Amino acid sequence: MRNLKTSIVACACLIASMLSQTKADDWDQKTTFTFSGPVEIPGQVLSSGTYLFKLVDSPSDRNIVQVFNKDQNHLHGTFLTIPDYRLKPSGKPIITFDERAAGSPEAVRAWFYPGENYGHEFVYPKAKAVQLAKANNSPVPSMPDQLAINTTEPATTMQEPHVVELKRAPLKAQLPADEEVEIAQVFVAQAAPPASLPERLPTTASSLPLVGLLGLFSLASGGLLWPDARDKIKASRRAAAGGMPKGRVWREAQMAAVKPSP
């Protein structure tokens, strides 16, 4: 009986952990992409392979993206982004690319987490942004070229000097006609969504089955505890019949006899 109760508690804890993990993934938007060929991100080129994209774990830095290797034990870079909007959210991760000059790897433009209208458009160093703007005939967000090195340095917190300098970078927009303007003149309609902890799971998954299982485990555990309470009451009554003062046992039995609501 005791082993069975322990198993039920363990299963309930496992389900709670699964719910917590799902919400954690929804918060940092952790997404894995596999590239069949080299792709460019600001300041570097990634070789073909599998990479993990995620937002930094900070409610005040929702426009900073980090790219790791598949096992998340090597950081490739920390990058500035601006909000990118899609009218209709997708049920799967989306990554978009910019056109590039012949012989150059595709440049990652933005990525979107499943179920989200807002994605994350990468901010490129000015020289590269100018090239991409001309090749795509569309504006590209840019930052000063000298900050490109900041994206590749190790970053365990957002308070490290090179990350703070990156966050304070003056952002511009490079136009196809080789003109630089303030970023708000071009991307003003793409206001950043409010930063808040997720209140729902992604549309690709539902917590209802897990909640249902938790309910079943609660009922099962209640059914197991109720027979124990009856046994304690019987034992207390037998002890009282033998003339032994068992008031404490009786109070404990009464407390244990509170049957859980159906």
> Helical proportion?
25-40%
Strand-residue proportion: 25-35%
Overall morphology: globular
Which stretches of 5+ consecutive residues score pLDDT under 50? Answer: 2-24, 195-206, 243-262
How many whole angstroms does the radius of gyration measure?
28 Å
Would you tell me the structural class of the helices and strands?
A: alpha+beta
Number of helices: 6
First-to-last CA distance: 21 Å
Mean pLDDT: 76
Number-wise, the strands total 13
Domain count: the total is: 2
H/E topology pattern: HEEEEEEEEEEHEHEEHHH
Largest beta-sheet characterization: 9 strands, mixed
Short description:
With 262 residues, the protein is α+β, with helices and mostly antiparallel strands.
